[in-house]
Amino acid sequence: MYIKSFLIKLIMITAVLTIILGMFYAVNSRDVLIISVVLTIIGYIGDVFILPRVGNVLAAMGDFFLATAVIWVMGNTLEIPIALGAASFISALILMIVELYLHQFMERHIFEPQITNPKHKRGYYQQTNLQTEFAEEVDLDKISKEGNTE
Questions:
Q1: The 3-state secondary structure of the chain, one letter per residue
Q2: What confidence tens digit (pLDDT) does each residue in 54-106 have?
């Protein structure tokens, strides 16, 4: 499953960067592919180790900052002649939104099946700490009649 989620992330990042950097900023496909591979490797390592600890939203926010930095640094390293600040911000924003769905996939198919203790599972039906509440039913009419007689 790790390989499947890695390939999904690589395809997703490559597609987004091809659309944003390739079509709108006319960056050549070789540079887009290099940035995609570097961003995928660094981001996937972060997803595997950080996502289970901090949750989906914080991991997606971390991916936003990571994508912004990696695209900007790689763009300067590869000497891509575009406005890297705007291009990296727009790309990272779209990647962050798409990463939310990838993180949900990873939580359901990678991290959740590895949990053996049912008390630590997040699913609704795996909760074992439920309690039943017992109480006697109260007859409000009887109580109100008893209160009026005094």
A1: CHHHHHHHHHHHHHHHHHHHHHHHCCCCHHHHHHHHHHHHHHHHHHHHHHHHHHCHHHHHHHHHHHHHHHHHHHHHHCCCCCCHHHHHHHHHHHHHHHHHHHHHHHHHHHHHHHCCCHHHCCCHHHCCCCCCCCCCCCCHHHHHHHHHHC
A2: 888 899 999 999 999 999 999 999 999 899 999 999 999 999 999 999 988 88
Q: Between the CA of residue 39 and those of 29, 75, 86, 118, 121, what are the distances in Å?
A: 15, 12, 17, 35, 30
**Per-residue CA distances from 20 to 9, 40, 88 (Å):** 16, 16, 9
User: Which residues have C-beta within 8 Å of that of residue 95, sequence separation ≥ 6?
Assistant: 12, 13, 16, 63, 64, 67
CA angle 43, 46, 49 (to 5 degrees): 150
The residues, ordered by sequence, that sit 6+ positions from 113 with a Cβ below 8 Å of its Cβ are: none
